[in-house]
Write a structure and sequence with these properties.
By secondary structure, this protein is mainly alpha-helical. 62% of the residues lie in helices and 0% in strands. The protein is elongated, with a radius of gyration of 19 Å. The chain binds zinc ion.
């Protein structure tokens, strides 16, 4: 087998713990915006809402990435990890180093 399964698992685990760390840090930022006009001016309230929207978008991406990690781990378990799901070719390790959850080779991903 061309794929180093232990290396792949380690990469996925590193990304997962990074995502989990970030998630706990930003939980506070995603909290509902305080709408009390007296405590926050209109501009800073808009800033806060914008910041909250960004934090929520980041959190959605994070949740999506966690799903991709689980899917990659399933592919590892089924010996399908590292093969393009479109064409079946091996995904080069250089690509997997950058995106360990990659499902497709560069050619198919950009097609
Ligand atoms: Zn492909």
């Amino acid at each position: 087998m061309a794929i180093d399964v232990e290396k792949a698992k380690a990469r996925l685990a590193a990304i997962r713990s990074e995502l989990e760390n970030l998630s706990s840090v930003s939980a506070e930022m995603r909290a509902p915006v305080e709408l009390d006009q007296n405590s926050v001016g209109r501009l800073s309230r808009m800033d806060a809402m914008q910041q909250q929207a960004m934090a929520q978008a980041t959190e959605r991406k994070r949740a999506h990435d966690l799903v991709r990690i689980e899917m990659a781990e399933r592919r590892i378990a089924e010996d399908e990890y590292g093969y393009c799901e479109e064409c079946g070719d091996e995904i080069p390790d250089g690509r997997l180093a950058i995106d360990p959850m990659a499902e497709r080779c560069v050619g198919c991903a950009s097609a």
